[in-house]
Specification:
The protein is mainly alpha-helical and 256 residues long. The chain contains 10 helices and no strands.
Length: 256
């Protein structure tokens, strides 16, 4: 099912949307750096990263909807499940097809973004140069962010046939998981909402801490989060857990 899912993505409009995302990242970085009064490379890289993080959940929704949800709404599963293939293998094939496509887009966008940051900085000597090695580390952390959101999206697509529910779940999960830890830090000690919001850390991973753009923008490893190895392990475990839930949901799914 991996090959069939890749072909499905290739034949759909999602290839053009992926190219549009990459172009949008490059254009936004170029414009931001071009009109920046100082530190053009830093500004270009920062804006490009923000654009990439902003639109990635939307593209993930479209991919999961096309590759997985429409499988059931259009009754393609009648052909798929007629094959002598385990349902778990079908799900993993589709999952990794979407993830590898996202890896390709992110790496391509990162390459263009790095090129734009270099181009806009020509003739301008920055006091603090951007770090390409730090940018590579950021991309690795960002791909983990994508992996988690995709895992949750796949699980939701297995338990619902509603496009609206899938959309709001993916977007809502992305917003909450990327921002709730910052909200907790902003709240004063003992504030009424603090204890309630802090409970989210047991339900939602801290994807906001995976945004380590400071390592790329300023070339300082100090911008890595405390206990980053534990953060990676916990976040990866969360994604694997939801993949297991998705497999269980598909194995127990009944079709009429």
């Amino acid at each position: 099912m991996f090959k069939e899912s890749i072909l499905l993505i290739w034949r759909s409009h999602l290839i053009a949307l992926g190219g549009l995302l990459v172009a949008l990242v490059a254009i936004s970085a170029f414009c931001a750096g071009l009109f920046s009064g100082r530190q053009p490379a830093t500004v270009a890289l920062d804006v490009g990263i923000s654009t990439l993080r902003l639109f990635t959940p939307l593209l993930l929704f479209l991919l999961v909807h096309e590759v997985m949800s429409r499988e059931f709404s259009r009754k393609y599963y009648l052909r798929t499940f007629a094959m002598p293939i385990n349902r778990a293998n079908i799900l993993f094939g589709k999952f990794f097809a979407v993830f590898l496509y996202m890896v390709f887009l992110v790496v391509l966008g990162a390459a263009l973004l790095g090129g734009m940051a270099y181009f806009v900085s020509l003739g301008y000597q920055q006091a603090t140069a951007i770090s390409m090695s730090g940018f590579a580390i950021f991309i690795a952390f960002f791909l983990l962010d994508v992996f988690v959101i995709l895992s949750v999206s796949v699980f939701v697509s297995m338990i619902t046939s509603s496009t609206g529910f899938l959309f709001f779940t993916i977007i809502g999960f992305s917003i909450v998981s990327r921002t709730y830890y910052s909200v907790i830090q902003l709240l004063a000690d003992g504030a009424p909402l603090e204890s309630g919001i802090s409970m989210l850390k047991w339900l939602v991973p801290d994807l906001g801490s995976l945004d380590i753009r400071g390592v790329a923008l300023y070339g300082k490893i100090e911008f890595l989060p405390d206990q980053w190895a534990l953060l990676i392990a916990g976040t990866l475990g969360y994604a694997v857990l939801f993949l297991a839930f998705a497999v269980m949901a598909l194995q127990n799914k009944r079709f009429s």
